[in-house]
Amino acid sequence: MSIFTFDFMIRALLGALLVGLTAPAVGVYLVQRRMALLGDGIGHIALTGVALGFLFSWAPVLTAVLVSAAGAVVIELIRARGRTSGDVALAVMFYGGIAGGVLLIGLSAGTSNVNLLSYLFGSLLTTSWSDLVIIAVLAAAVLVVTLLLRPWLFAVCHDEEFATVSGLPVRLLNLVLAVTAAVTVTVAMRVVGLLLVSALMVIPVATAQQVARGFVTTMLGGIALGVTISLSGAVGSYYLNVASGAAIVVLAIAVFLLVTAGTALLRRRGGAAAARTATTPDLGLDDEHVMADG
Amino acid sequence: MTAADPVVEVRGAVVAYGGRPVLRGIDLTVTAGEVVAVLGANGSGKSTLIRAALGLAPLAAGSVRLFGTPLDSFRERRRVGYVPQRLGAGSGVPATVREVVRSGVLARRGFARLPRRTEAHAIAGALAAVGLSDREHDQVGTLSGGQQQRVLIARALAGQPDLLVLDEPTAGVDAASQVAFAGTVELLLEHGTTILLVAHELGPMEPLIQRAVVLSAGRVVHDGPCPRPMGHHADPDHDHVHPHAPDEDAAGWVPAVRDRA
Q: Mean pLDDT for chain A?
């Protein structure tokens, strides 16, 4: 019997698809500006948002969006100031987020550790249709921002000073990116969990960039990998009866290692071949004198 | 705009990093169509001066006007092209030459607008001006240092700026790229572009520099023609393309010293 006849499985696969699309689409910008762990920090903060949802009986996905977006804005403001003390401020926020979340969940009636674990490590199969509707709307917003604002986000992440001199709205773009990352965290938390969110933002991008030459190809390759890995992991976790988040992330790491080993092997062969016919581009300065004078 | 219009006006600029003064009251005026080089030893404040002129380094005192407008209220950013010394840390993901150069047209396009039809033409023109038309789909990280520098110049040119500001465009750059750069400067001069650049050594572009401003310890110590004698360099049979460094500046002129070997 096909797994697609189960309603919960269809919901699970839709959730996995949305995460596979959005996480690398945002992650490519975070990797580009070497802030790959930003998603992890936001994930910590989002737990407090989830707990607030339980405490006041609101939808945890919505409270998580609000709290993690606020947290992301604060992180960006700290980053923009560029002080070394900002490092400690971030640590306080991240661990405060986890501790506050656990504390608040303990205070709210009718929730258990099982519930907490489902947010920390993902629980695709318990995702409801109403959850999924919210996730789909948020995912659409993430895709609109990351795909349509690509030239501007690329310019800012690639060289913030050049973007400033060019008159681009650098502060606004940085805030938009931070909030988009926060929204992506909440999109992904039901699927891979808050503690593993960052993996799906970073690993498919890191895999794609080993074979891609450009930013757009890395981005599209990362998204394609993200979708494939997320869907395969979700299906695999069902048959193996293991947690979907862990299955997806382990699969992503396996693909990353395979591609890394493969490209290293190819490069070594290609490198050996190139070395035999190589001409050094920056040759001796004496030759340059001749060229320059001639 | 007439030739006498000031494009960059820096008055009494003071910049300090962590309480240590880097610029100690600097005046600099660049008028339309001029090619001005800011020279000086390492730590003399020459890069800080142009960063202050662009608003990238905060002024503790003094003022900056671009195209006659105070920097704070200057909105025509597209008229300014900036070429940093090298790419910063923001390059965790590979990018092609064309992708980087394309960032340069955004200043003219405006935020969240559709591409203009003239952009492809501007990008192609910028790549041709630096001699990298055949490399547009290559990954920037695989190019030589000099070629990467040319990519950054092309990015600034793609915005078709009236003022081009360059931070050490020829430092650590192979001679082929230096010659290519001198050719680019010549081309820009024909279009009336104003050029302000920071340099350790002038190399093949020395004949194009109309005025040199020499900084020492955060102050202007010379403002006028290129300070070093140029007579024997003009001789076509002369071996050297780089000016010899004054002895007191030797530490800052490593490439020139190396060339003498």
A: 86
Domain count, chain A: 1
User: Structural domain of residue A11, as residue ranges?
Assistant: 3-278
As for how many domains chain B has, the answer is 1
Q: What angle do CA A242, A245, A250 make, to 5 degrees?
A: 85
- Give the separation between CA A103 and CA A96, rounded to whole angstroms: 10
Cβ neighbours for A117, distance < 8 A, ≥ 6 positions apart: A123
Asked if A167 and B159 come within 8 Å (Cβ–Cβ), the reply is: no
Q: What is the pLDDT of residues B209-255, one digit of tens each?
A: 999 999 999 999 999 888 764 444 444 444 444 444 444 333 333 33
CA A213 to chain B, closest CA, distance in angstroms equals 5
Contact call for residues B164 and B3 (beta carbons, < 8 A): no
**Residue A284: its pLDDT value, please?**
35
ipTM entry: 0.84
B259 within a domain of the structure (yes/no): no
The residues pairing with A43 across neighbouring beta strands, listed in sequence order, are none
CATH code, domain with A164: 1.10.3470.10
DSSP state of B116: P
Q: What pLDDT does residue B199 have?
A: 87
Q: Which residues of B touch A154 (CB under 8 A)?
A: 95, 99, 103
Would A176 be classed as within a structural domain?
yes
pLDDT in tens, A183-201: 999 989 888 899 888 999 9
Chain A residues lying within 8 Å of B137, measured CB to CB? 213-214
